[in-house]
Write a structure and sequence with these properties.
This protein is mostly helical. It has twelve helices and no strands. The model has no long low-confidence stretch (mean pLDDT about 95). The structure holds the ligand Cc1ncc(C[n+]2csc(CCO)c2C)c(N)n1. The ligand Cc1ncc(C[n+]2csc(CCO)c2C)c(N)n1 binds next to helix 4, helix 5, helix 9 and helix 12. It catalyses: thiamine + H2O = 5-(2-hydroxyethyl)-4-methylthiazole + 4-amino-5-hydroxymethyl-2-methylpyrimidine + H(+); 4-amino-5-aminomethyl-2-methylpyrimidine + H2O = 4-amino-5-hydroxymethyl-2-methylpyrimidine + NH4(+). This is Aminopyrimidine aminohydrolase.
């Protein structure tokens, strides 16, 4: 299953088609399989929550970079609304995971980003030093992979109210998530239509790197990645 409907046109639709294999790798990663089956260990879920809260903080900063690059007030409104959404809403998704782990959100907080989360954050922040279009391309896989996965899983019809991660899946399948994604793709389509060949190449590179980082974020949580020196036994 690919993340683009057959009748969709435009630059981001082509991006989605060209890199559908990476979206599939995201969906099939053992961590997300475990989110579907409800079989993850509590420590894996908590590792994800702690890292993801930090990731979202960085994501909000990137919206701030977008605000600084905004050519007009319409763009500013987009970033303003987006900051407000992540700042006040996205914790709800984490809450469902904390409930599963029997931990408070406050206790799930960490102050050090694991290597893979740090690499993703660095990539997005760096994209914000290029152009508005490159920044949006780096930010796009975040809502796109989550929304597409949640809608795909819900369409399978096996998500009951009693699923341990019901709140998390329902949050990302919500129509308000859909409008965030549609808006972001529309803005990037607009910018891409005016971009030259060199910028288009950087846009695609930034997008592809972020989809890779999304898959690696699962791997980080799945393997409880931290800064223990690689190859040591402890
Ligand atoms: C690693 C990681 N990637 C994507 C999301 C989902 N997400 C984060 S911000 C945002 C955009 C608007 O809310 C979305 C969909 C996440 N939580 N963590």
């Amino acid at each position: 299953m690919i993340p683009v409907a057959p009748d969709e046109t435009g630059f981001t639709a082509e991006l989605g088609r060209r890199h559908a294999d990476l979206f599939e790798a995201f969906y099939q990663h053992p961590f997300l399989r475990g989110m579907r089956a409800g079989t993850l260990a509590k420590e894996q879920v908590l590792h994800y929550v702690g890292q993801d809260h930090q990731y979202l903080t960085a994501y909000i900063r990137c919206y701030g970079l977008g605000l600084a690059l905004s050519p007009d007030r319409e763009w500013m409104r987009y970033f303003h609304d987006s900051v407000a959404f992540v700042l006040s809403e996205e914790d709800h998704a984490h809450q469902a995971l904390c409930d599963f782990a029997g931990t408070s959100y406050a206790d799930a907080q960490v102050d050090v980003l694991a290597p893979s989360a740090q690499a993703y954050v660095n990539h997005m922040m760096e994209a914000g030093r290029d152009s508005l279009a490159v920044l949006l391309a780096a930010l796009l896989p975040c809502p796109w992979t989550y929304l597409w996965s949640a809608q795909r899983f819900l369409a399978e019809g096996t998500l009951g109210e009693d699923h341990p991660f019901h709140g998390w899946w329902a949050f990302y399948a919500d129509p308000s998530m859909g409008s965030t994604l549609t808006r972001l793709r529309g803005l990037l389509d607009e910018l891409a239509a005016q971009a030259g060949a060199a910028e288009l190449e950087r846009i695609e590179k930034a997008f592809v790197a972020s989809v890779h980082h999304e898959v690696r974020f699962w791997q980080m949580a799945w393997s409880l990645e931290d800064w223990t020196p690689v190859g040591s036994d402890s």
